[in-house]
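### Sample
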Amino acid sequence: MANPDAQGVTGAPFRLDVERGKIREFALATGAADAAYLQEEHPVVQPTFLTTTFFWQDEDSNPWSAVDLDQQRGLHAEQQYTFFGEPPRAGTRLTCQSRIGEIYTKVGRRGGEMTFAVMYTDFRDETGRLVAQAKLTGVETARPPDTEGTTQDGASA
């Protein structure tokens, strides 16, 4: 069961150096063909590039474990990015910090209670200006998914 006391838990700040090669690799991995991501000397990041922060977080900087969602009943429900101006470009050093926001429940359509948890990650440039914010929403269902009628690999029987 999700831990409501996790609300407000904040991780340690961590650094993300926005690198030209990583922007290019991300663009190619996601099928982006825009020359702005692939050929410019200081390309701007794709909006979803900030997801790569998960490669830079560790247990001190990532407060998500405090939420304690049951992985058998949990899923990633939503990801949102807000930019406060142009997205960062290659050569930018970002200081990032994540915190657990709201934790709340709703009754699902099939009658089970669902617990939602929201984590915000702020991205600040070298001057301390807020450049972007990521909002991750996870959900835990009241009971495990119904597996009746499926095979071991999850396919329909």
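The CA atoms of residues 58 and 117 lie 19 Å apart. This sample (FAS1-like dehydratase domain-containing protein) is used throughout the tutorial notebook.
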